[in-house]
Amino acid sequence: MTFPVTDPIWIFFIVLIIILFAPIILGKLKIPHIIGMILAGIAIGEHGLNILERDSSFELFGQVGLYYIMFLAGLEMDMEDFRKNKVKGLVFGLLTFIIPMALGIWTSISLLGYSMVTSVLLSSMYASHTLVAYPIVSRYGLSRQRSVNITIGGTAVTVTLALVILAVISGMYKGTVDSLYWISLVVKVTLLSAAIVFLVPVLGRWFFRKYDDAVMQFIFVLALVFLGGGLMSLAGMEGILGAFLVGMVLNKLVPKVSPLMNRLEFVGNALFIPYFLIGVGMIIDLRSFVAGGEAMKVALVMTVVATLSKWLAAFFTQKIYGMSRNERKMMFGLSNAQAAATLAAVLIGHEIILENGERLLNDDVLNGTVIMILFTCVISTIETERASRRFAMDQNSAASAEKDRQKEKERFLIPVANPDTIENLVNLALVVRDPKSRESIVALNVINDSGSSEAGESVGRKSLERAAMIASSADVRTDMVCRYDMNVASGIVHTLKEKNATDLVIGLHQKSSILDSFFGSLTGSILKGTYREVMVARLEIPVNTLKGIVVTVPARAEFETGFARWSAHLCRMASQTGCRIHFHAEQETADRLRDLVGRSEARTLAVVETVESQPFPDRMASLKVGREQLLVIVSARAGSVSYDSAFDRLPALINKNFAENSLLILYPEQVDRQGVVSFADPRGNA
User: Fold this and answer.
1) Average confidence score pLDDT of the chain
2) Interval 205-222: pLDDT, tens
3) How far is Cα 449 from Cα 452, in angstroms, rounded to an integer?
4) CB–CB of 488/522 below 8 Å?
5) How many CA atoms are closer than 13 Å to the CA of 622, on its beta-carbon side?
6) Three-state DSSP class for 413?
7) What are the CA-CA distances from residue 496 to residues 365, 506, 534, 536 (Å)?
8) Where do the structural domains in the chain lie, given as residue ranges?
9) Which residue has the higher pLDDT, 584 or 459?
10) Is the pLDDT of residue 402 over 60?
11) Adjacent-strand bridge partners of 446
12) What angle do CA 230, 234, 238 make, to 5 degrees?
């Protein structure tokens, strides 16, 4: 075999070996995997062992990987966290942008002797950051910490501003810069950005409702990413800004825990992004550090300025809002790492050739960026680990974490009798369950002892496999249970007890009659046989395309045992889908709901409206629910404290007023007294 290798099969094999073993080796050394990919690229490139050359495949996959990084940055951004701390996040974002820009421009001109344009672009690299250390925060269960939320909000601000600067500077070298150029640039960017922001969500919502094929949805999203990038390129801006915008506007349509999100992350992290990082490493020439002192000087200045400016931004934010020292450490740790946007900026700047033949960002800056990324990622990891450990040692944080762990012990049971409702029911369970929970979902097929047939059993097993496939696509384990029983209701109730399931999700075929099926003998038998929470769903559109949730709550619902559980489930659904949720309840119930919602992840999305005390049918008739909204009716079992005799007329009310709406009938968890469903304890811990 001759080097560099030119056979496509061996090239791909070598790249896959690097992608496979770099995280394993670097993980033992506690070095971020992103650095391992770059170092591997340096080793195998023409400036290293010359095993591979940076051919067209690296250029193609590298460009795809670059767009993919920015797309995922927008897609994974927690918009709810940004809303919760939007003012503090805005302040921190501006500080973590302005301070690096000011300090970077001054040092680049005075210490490195660069031009103003080069200094501005270099400083924008300091301003951006990547949440490389965020998995550490998740591992410690500190995602809801104020300092973490502020940092996430600041990330959205500073990355966007840094990308705008990058796009403007890149655009300056694609045509003549005059007043007409700037007017044309602003108009084109404004119009195309508006087209992406307003048209992409509409197009995405239409497509997801019409087509549920996993491959088609994945290809559709990728097409939108590169459409956004192409439109921005046509406007004279850098295409990565379009990819970032597409990620942000698709944020609501792709729930964090969903098969589609899992596929997008998997393909990007398994192939495109590593390919891009390896290609970056192949550009680097470490011999430049040995050949002269300028490259080392540039690397030292870049690393010090990037680290110091991020620390100053966290310090000033701490002082402005009276935050603790450890909160400052957390903000600094999370915001110090330079990776995705920094690599994008340095590669784009390195490809721009000036009139004198030199590059806008020379080889010294390119090599110095690698050193900066290495040190900032290591510092970020260490600081975030230390801050997280201190938070975890705090008694209040430990008590809160213990409470969260107890709440995570929930298990959903989904009967799969109807193949047409399987996907909607599984996706509903995925957006309702706690994403931190490690409990599996139970998919159940009940076979009637008296009327079983081989054809029915075969269909049931296929339904179980389909449910398991959908859940596993979101990295959620599924227990497939196929059992014989005297009837379906008995089989469901027995499985609930045997599997210790806490929540039951059952469905109704979209064309079935509510009067005949929804409140028939099956649901009635299940409600009598279990005290667990039961959700009966009819989803006319996929849950990720909902535009809102309307919840009607009966009087005295706050005294039910499962009050906190179902309110948390609905708030989690709103947070996962990014849509507003409106609760309608009487005064006492509304006050308790406001308290629970205010401490949930959907507090900025939730509106609790107080309604006058009136008969339940009158309240139902006054509700206004759009075709793209989900109507949630919190009902109750007969004999419970919140039960209203008007619930018996729900089928007729629904048929009359909400026959074409997506619907969820929710029966809260009751007190379990020796296996008999009884009155809820009014003083119980709701």
Assistant:
1) 82
2) 999 988 888 889 999 999
3) 6
4) yes
5) 11
6) strand
7) 62, 13, 11, 16
8) 8-128+145-393, 540-686
9) 584
10) no
11) 483
12) 70
Contact predicate 608/592, CB 8 Å: no
Question: Token digits for 686?
Answer: 């709701």
Q: What sections of 213-362 are H helices per DSSP?
A: 214-234, 239-249, 259-267, 273-283, 287-291, 293-321, 325-336, 340-351
Rounded-to-integer distance, Cα 49 and Cα 338, Å: 27
Transcribe 85-102 into DSSP letters: THHHHHHHHHHHHHHHHH
H-type alpha helices, 322-453: 325-336, 340-351, 363-393, 395-407, 422-432
The CATH number given to 540-686 is 3.40.50
DSSP letters, 469-491, are: HHHHTTT--EEEEEEEESSHHHH
Class of domain 8-128+145-393: mainly alpha
Q: Which two tokens stand for residue 555?
A: 């009087």
d(CA 256, CA 254): 6
Q: How far is CA 299 from CA 108, 255, 305, in A?
A: 12, 40, 10
pLDDT tens digits, residue range 614-634? 887 778 888 888 889 999 999
In this structure, the strands spanning 548-552 and 580-585 are: parallel
Rg (CA), the chain: 28
Angle in degrees, 0-180, between the axes of helices 56-75 and 214-234, rounded to the nearest 10: 100
Query: Could you tell me the two tokens for 180?
Result: 């007409």
Q: What is the 3-class SS of 172-193, one letter each residue?
A: HCCCCCCHHHHHHHHHHHHHHH
Q: List the end-to-end C-alpha distance of the chain, in Å, as a whole number.
A: 71
CB 482, CB 464: distance < 8 Å = yes
Task: Report the share of the chain in percent with pLDDT over 90.
Answer: 20
Only one residue has tokens 């992004």, namely: 273
Q: Which tokens hold the place of 291?
A: 């050949």
The owner of tokens 């946007």 is: 341
For residue 424, give every residue at least 6 positions away whose Cβ sits within 8 Å of its Cβ, in sequence order, or none. Answer: 507, 537, 539, 542, 543
Spatial distance between the Cα atoms of 456 and 463, rounded to a whole number of angstroms = 11
For every residue of 590-623, which 3-state class applies, written as one string?
HHHHHHHHHCCCCCCCEEEEECCCCCHHHHHHHC
pLDDT tens track for 120-155: 988 988 998 877 777 677 667 676 677 887 887 788
